[in-house]
Structure formats: C-alpha cells, structure tokens
Amino acid sequence: MATSVPILRREINPLREGATAVTAQSDVPIVHPLQARELNFAKNEVQFKRVALQNVYGSHLSMRLQMEESILSNFQRLPTLKSEFVGLSTSLGLDEEIGFSDFLRDPSAPESAIDLHEVMEHRLGL
C-alpha cells in the first residue's frame, strides 16, 4: 500500500478538464482499506440482494432478473446523448432516489455540441 502522492504524467488544465481531473486518473492508488469496499459497495449490494432472492424464491427468479437487467442495459440512445437507462434504473429501484444530476446539471455533460454524424462514422468505422 503506497502512501506517496502519484506523479502526474501530463499537465492538467483544471479550466478545461474540471477540478476532478486529478482524482479521475486510474493510476491513483487506494489509500485506505475501506476505500476498496466503498468503491464496490453498489455491486456487492446487488449481488447480496440477488442471493437473498435466490434463497427465498429459488434460482429461477434470480436468473430471470439477471436476464432482464442484461436486456435493459443494451438499450442505448444516439452517441451525442447520454443514455439514462430508464428501464434498468426502474427495475433496480434506482428511480426512487434523487441524486446530484437530477437536481443540478450533470457534470459529465459536454459544454460544446458534438457532431452526431462524425461520432457515428467513428463508431461504425467508416
């Protein structure tokens, strides 16, 4: 477990990339032992609920819910629009909570307009 500050590989412009650009890098080590558990909390909670449903109702319900989640996670919008996965969030029960992006503007949304045709050509390899 490293306790040193990571060395920046490139210069970061906080006006362009935002204040969280330094913390969003993947090479930042996990400092606290509970940080890894906190990062995996949502995944572990879903897995725990799935095991509880399997113990109560049998393995069929667990497999059916997993199949529905995989189907609902495939629905996507056009590349210039962020996919909200409304069906998936409804089936997981996440639509009943109000988060930061529901109240204020989503920080991951781009400031400038993106050319839809250019993005689709890149996605399709044209």
Describe what you observe in this structure.
- Pfam families: UMP1.
- Keywords: Chaperone, Proteasome.
- The radius of gyration is 20 Å and the shape is extended.
- It contains seven helices and no strands.
- It has helices at 14-17, 33-39, 41-57, 59-72, 86-92, 100-103, 116-124.
- The model has no long low-confidence stretch (mean pLDDT 78).
- The protein folds into two domains: 31-74, no CATH class; 76-125, no CATH class.
Keywords:
126 residues; single chain; 2 domains; extended; Proteasome maturation factor UMP1; mainly alpha; proteasome
Q: How many structural domains are formed by the residues?
A: 2
* Cα shape: extended
State the helical fraction: 40-55%
Query: What is the average of the pLDDT values?
Result: 78
* SSE arrangement, N to C: HHHHHHH
SS summary, helix count = 7
Low-confidence stretches: none
